[in-house]
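User: Can you fold this complex?
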Amino acid sequence: MKTMEMTCIRCPMGCRLTVAQDGDSFTVTGNTCRRGEEYGIQEMRCPMRTVTSSVRVEGGRRPVCSVKTAENVKKADIPAVLEAIRALKATAPITIGDVLCPNVAGTGVDLVATAND
Ligand code: SF4
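Assistant: Here's the predicted assembly.
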């Protein structure tokens, strides 16, 4: 049996979770709600995160524009996503929600603007 302790980040309560894995079966304790159980199991199976950063902009009011992945990506893919973001140069005008890089780093998730520029 494998056991992992973690803090649930689904809400500001920050419940301290213990997740026990026995084959394909998971037991989560310490959670106050079901979202904590889902988070704990997801963390054991395949941790996912939203990536936030900024990209260089040509012709805009500011030299950079804030961005995020439209959905969570695998934690293991974050370095590749950040590398793709570093290599990216967007062109103004940019509107919040614009897709600046579809399928960023082959994750199947788009990179979108979170500011106007
Ligand atoms: S278990 Fe529920 S209440 Fe606790 S931090 Fe997670 S989402 Fe919030």
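The radius of gyration is 18 Å. Residues 8, 10-11, 13-15, 31-33, 35-36 surround iron/sulfur cluster (CB under 6 Å).
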